[in-house]
Write a structure and sequence with these properties.
heterodimer, A: alpha/beta, Rossmann fold, Ubiquitin-like (UB roll), 3 domains, 5-stranded mixed sheet, 18 helices, 9 strands, about 10% strand, globular, B: about 550 residues, alpha+beta, elongated, binds flavin mononucleotide, binds iron/sulfur cluster, binds FE2/S2 (inorganic) cluster
């Protein structure tokens, strides 16, 4: 079977986001069938059988997650759609919401039918004003056409969908941070257990799924679990959106089967490294993943292959750096982000992210010491696996790998009085001035 | 604290199989076996935040270290508190806690009772790998009694949770993120609730500072007395801390039957009257002052020359003092006893279960137990009438508490119309002017003895006065001396000895002794198992 794009096949057509366009192309047929013909358990089993893995970053099997929600409970159950998309280098959910909002809504209906949910919240990143408007219009249309609300699509199923705009915090993309924020509290992750499936939004069982994850559902029902499972590798199949940014000729979002090779993605789809330069480094899964050196880039873009290569698929935000990149500056840039975004509740993350930024900054401005490279590694070791959420790991993974895979850049910055960019801007300096790069 | 049930769980702690009730957290259960796991954010009276991470231990169920304040014991669980992994996790947290900490212990009021100091001594590195500039966070007033020194804050959120869960006032919050995080109040809404002082106590570091205590004393130099607050009928268990004989601070003492871990600010800061300029410190007659050694003689002469005496007692007196008054009154024909009560204030209840009683005195129950339930009622109206009609010629009045209002307007007027007046008072005032004999009274925190709180719980109070500070004998001493002069008593006893007399003569107090009451008190109705004769006579 040849690969068919499900998210992006029509995005260049003018009215692709409209309800009529969507329905003309078979939209809401799978939602209708799920509401009228499918048993909830069969839906869950089908998604399990399809091996759909979460597209938000952790890659958790979606059907299995749904199965954790207690069947017999007096409490309402919720779906919290993670549309916070703030992982650096990641801009795929935004594309779905802007160009194909009804696909997300159809996925939401299928998930809610499977788990017995009657209220879904979409938590959308605050900066996505255009996407939020598009999505809200789509929701309003769906209500007025009887697709949402009471008696969805002529069934006896009721489903409400509420769009909630965040205020621009990366940590509100972490599932429990998102729930805290939705509840009106400070956006801070919560202790697990209890897991959201058991005790989530407002203390009730809650499914948290990423936008792209849910947008896969109509297609799984359409072609069946078996056919879906054959797209890409067995353990993490499916069509996938890859975001390529950085030093490439044609940055953008590319819909390809899971398991495409990283080289093909960069060289064929993204036009190759720009300006005829050579590749230096790639972070394949948003900035939270371990960096790959150019010689490690012969790897397939799926969950298992990237894990075997010591990194992760994460959000599939592929950040490409060419040979002119100073990895000290790259480290500083990335650490500044995590330091800024750490919610600050856990000691190792609160203090570690700031410490890492300060060390990176010191090296970049020519005040580095040789022992700083080991210090970064040890600080990272002291952060990983010791916090409430994975943000500490997300900061430590790139830091530790950048320092250890690109030691030559660090040695050069330490010996030469700063990173090349710093020296260029401060030619007379032998290091030591306390300004930012 | 977690809910536990009686079912026993077998688990493994540092290589040994141990048992605990199911539902306990690893930290609680380990403690029961003598293993103290360090904590910052955990507080038994608050919800679990799990943010400081110092309590991490190694588990056979998880590749990562787990936090013992939140995770519960389970059958087959194996926990290591001192393995390489556990120690590394703890060391990591200590290093992180200290990198931005100002380490200004020499000028920090918390020094000496700081959890960060203690853990750092035990688990911390002896030098820093942090060569960067430390972060600066705000130092500011959060409310009338509390300042924050943000640089010291370890963001444990104990104070925030206290205001959310216990006082229910929610004034505090964490602002900013990452290592800029610090506790603050909302603009224009200071922390100002009647339990606010507790936030300073539970702050593990010197971030929250009591403006009342700031720079008053190094905590290790203070003497501590285990006592009970006399501010209201709740009877919160407290520690009275004094430097060179002067009270500097009151701290709540844990008692789950009375005040949990808390006390109110009225009680906490309500000790300044001890050092008021108007404090009555010498004994006086209309002729002039009386030496301390002659005070009891003066009182005895007054009593012996009186043909009918009325005793007016107050609900700040200890059961021992009351017992001595009763013995005197019983020995004197034509005498009677009544009591006066200060006016009620307002009751204040808080969502965490804490209540400040409307009755602003500590021992009404004791007075009623010893003199009968009508002591403040019909006995009081009789005495008022008798004073007005002149049928008592001497009134011996006890005017305790903070004493600024004497015994209240009605009694103050009645007292000045009495033919003869003996007034034990803590403060000078119209009620003692022109009295036949004025004697200094001990204020609540200066008494030795037993009070009975509104729940009928008998609790020991101890005097914060140091021995060298006893410049005037207490009521306990003077009343016994008077009894000795009157040949009612052969020798003077300590408060414990007087209490034993009381327990031998009253069925309500029977069986109790100072030592059986212990530091946390006992309901009067709950008789202790016989433990031989104790009582510490002197
Ligand atoms: C720091 C942090 C930030 C995250 N940000 C996002 C995000 O922006 N969008 C998202 O879908 N998942 C994000 N995640 C992952 C979510 O916690 C969660 O795993 C995901 O939403 C689950 O959905 P899925 O199973 O469909 O992938 C983040 C996780 C962490 C630790
Ligand atoms: S790991 Fe960092 S971001 Fe996550 S909860 Fe802890 S402090 Fe907050
Ligand atoms: S002020 Fe004290 S109690 Fe409050 S969060 Fe900071 S360290 Fe904890
Ligand atoms: S509640 Fe009553 S006893 Fe407790 S501290 Fe306050 S005044 Fe004192
Ligand atoms: S005491 Fe357990 S995390 Fe703070």
């Amino acid at each position: 079977m040849s690969f068919r794009k499900i998210f992006t096949q029509h995005i260049h057509e003018e009215k692709c986001h409209s309800l009529s366009f969507y329905q003309k192309n078979g939209g809401y047929e799978q939602a209708r069938k799920s509401l009228h013909d499918w048993q909830p358990d069969d839906l869950i089993e089908t998604v399990k059988a399809a091996n759909l893995r979460g597209r938000g970053g952790a890659g958790f099997p979606t059907g299995v997650k749904w199965g954790f929600v207690p069947k017999n409970t007096d409490k309402p159950k919720y779906l919290a759609v993670n549309a916070d998309e703030s992982e650096p280098g990641t801009f795929k959910d935004r594309l779905i919401m802007e160009k194909n909002p009804h696909l997300l809504l159809e996925g939401i209906i299928i998930c809610c039918k499977a788990v017995g949910i009657h209220h879904a919240y979409i938590y959308i990143r605050g900066e996505f004003v255009f996407a939020a408007n598009r999505l809200q219009n789509a929701i309003d249309r769906a209500y007025s056409e009887g697709i949402l609300g009471e008696n969805c699509l002529g069934s006896d199923f009721t489903l409400d969908v509420t769009l909630h705009r965040g205020a621009g915090a990366y940590i509100c993309g972490e599932e429990t941070g998102m729930l805290s924020s939705l509840e009106g509290d400070r956006g801070q992750p919560k202790l697990k257990p209890p897991f959201p499936a058991v005790e989530g939004l407002f203390g009730c069982p809650t499914v948290v799924n990423n936008v792209e994850t849910l947008a896969n559902l109509p297609y799984i029902l359409e072609i069946g679990a078996e056919a879906y499972g054959k797209i890409g590798p067995e353990k993490s199949p499916g069509p996938k959106l890859f975001c390529v940014s950085g030093h490439v000729e044609k940055p953008g979002v590319f819909e390809l089967p899971m398991g495409i090779s990283l080289r093909t993605l960069i060289d064929e789809h993204a036009g190759g490294v720009w300006k005829g330069r050579k590749l230096k480094a790639v972070i394949p899964g948003g900035s939270s993943a371990h960096v790959l050196r150019a010689d490690e880039c012969d790897v397939d873009m799926d969950i298992e292959s990237l894990a075997a290569a010591g990194t992760m698929l994460g959000s599939a935000g592929v950040i490409v750096m060419d040979e002119t990149t100073c990895m000290v500056d790259a480290l500083l840039n990335i650490m500044r982000f995590y330091h800024h975004e750490s919610c600050g509740q856990c000691t190792p993350c609160r203090e570690g992210t700031g410490w890492l930024e300060k060390i990176a900054h010191r090296i970049a401005i020519g005040e580095g010491r040789m022992e700083d490279m080991d210090l970064v590694t040890e600080v990272c070791d002291r952060m990983v696996g010791k916090t409430i959420c994975a943000l500490a790991d997300a900061a430590a993974f790139p830091a530790e790998s950048i320092v250890n895979k690109f030691r030559e850049d660090f040695v050069a910055a330490i010996e030469n009085g700063g990173s090349p960019a710093w020296i260029k801007r401060h030619p007379a300096s032998t290091g030591g001035a306390a300004t930012h790069v | 604290m977690s809910d536990t049930s009686n079912e026993l769980i077998s688990w493994n702690l540092n290589g040994e199989v141990v048992q605990n009730e199911s539902g306990m957290t690893i930290m609680e259960a380990a403690k029961a076996h003598g293993i103290e796991i360090p904590c910052f954010c955990y507080h038994p009276g608050l919800s679990i935040a799990g943010n400081c991470r110092i309590c991490m231990v190694e588990s056979n169920r998880s590749p990562k270290p787990i936090i013992s304040c939140s995770e519960r014991i389970a059958e087959g669980l194996e926990i290591q508190t001192d393995s390489e992994k556990a120690v590394d996790a703890r060391d990591s947290v200590m290093e992180f806690q200290l990198i931005n900490h100002p380490l200004d212990c020499p000028v920090c009021d918390k020094a000496g009772e700081c959890v960060l100091q203690d853990h750092s001594y035990e688990h911390g590195p002896d030098r820093s790998r942090f060569v960067e500039d430390k972060n600066i966070r705000h130092t500011k007033e959060l409310g009338p009694t509390i300042d924050i020194w943000g640089n010291r804050c370890i963001v444990c959120t104990r104070c925030v949770r206290f205001c959310d869960e216990i006082s229910g006032t929610s004034e505090l919050c964490v602002v900013e993120r990452g290592d800029r995080s610090v506790v603050d109040v909302f603009p224009g809404i200071p922390i100002d609730n009647a339990m606010a002082g507790n936030t300073v106590d539970i702050c593990p570091v010197g971030a929250l500072i009591s403006t009342d205590f700031k720079y008053e004393a190094r905590v290790w130099n203070m003497d501590r007395t285990t006592s009970v607050c006399g501010g209201c009928s709740r009877g919160c268990n407290v520690e009275v801390e004094a430097l060179d004989g002067f009270v500097k601070r009151l701290m709540p003492r844990e008692n789950l039957d009375v005040n949990d871990w808390w006390m109110c600010d009225h009680g906490r800061y309500g000790w300044r009257h001890l050092y008021a300029d108007s404090r009555q410190v010498t004994a006086q007659t209309t002729e002039g002052s009386v030496l301390p050694a002659e005070a009891s003689k003066a009182l005895q002469q007054t009593l012996e020359s009186s043909s009918s005496t009325g005793f007016l007692v107050d609900p700040f007196m200890t059961c021992e003092e009351l017992h001595l008054v009763k013995q005197l009154a019983d020995s004197m024909t034509g005498s009677r006893v009544a009591g006066w009560l200060p006016a009620d204030g307002t009751e204040e209840s808080f969502p965490g279960g804490f209540t400040i009683s409307a009755a602003k005195y500590p021992n009404r129950k004791g007075v009623e137990e010893i003199f009968g339930a009508d002591v403040f009622g019909s006995a009081a109206s009789t005495l008022l009438n008798d004073i007005a009609s002149g049928s008592v010629d001497t009134v011996v009045a006890f005017v305790g508490g903070h004493g600024f209002d004497g015994a209240g307007a009605e009694w103050n007027a009645a007292l000045s119309s009495a033919k003869n007046r003996v007034v034990f008072t803590t403060q000078q005032g119209a009620w003692s002017e022109g009295a036949h004999l004025v004697l200094p009274a001990t204020a609540p925190l200066e008494k030795e003895g037993v009070w009975i709180n509104e729940d009928n719980r008998a609790q020991r109070v101890r005097s914060c006065r140091s021995l060298t500070d006893q410049n005037f004998p207490s009521e306990l001493v003077i009343l016994q001396e008077v009894q000795a002069h009157m040949e009612l008593r052969s020798r003077s006893l300590s408060a414990a000895g007087v209490f034993r007399e009381l327990s031998e003569s009253s069925s309500a107090f029977e069986g109790h002794s100072h030592s059986s009451l212990g530091d946390h008190g006992t309901p009067l109705s709950q008789k202790p198992a016989a433990v031989g004769s104790e009582g510490g006579e002197s």
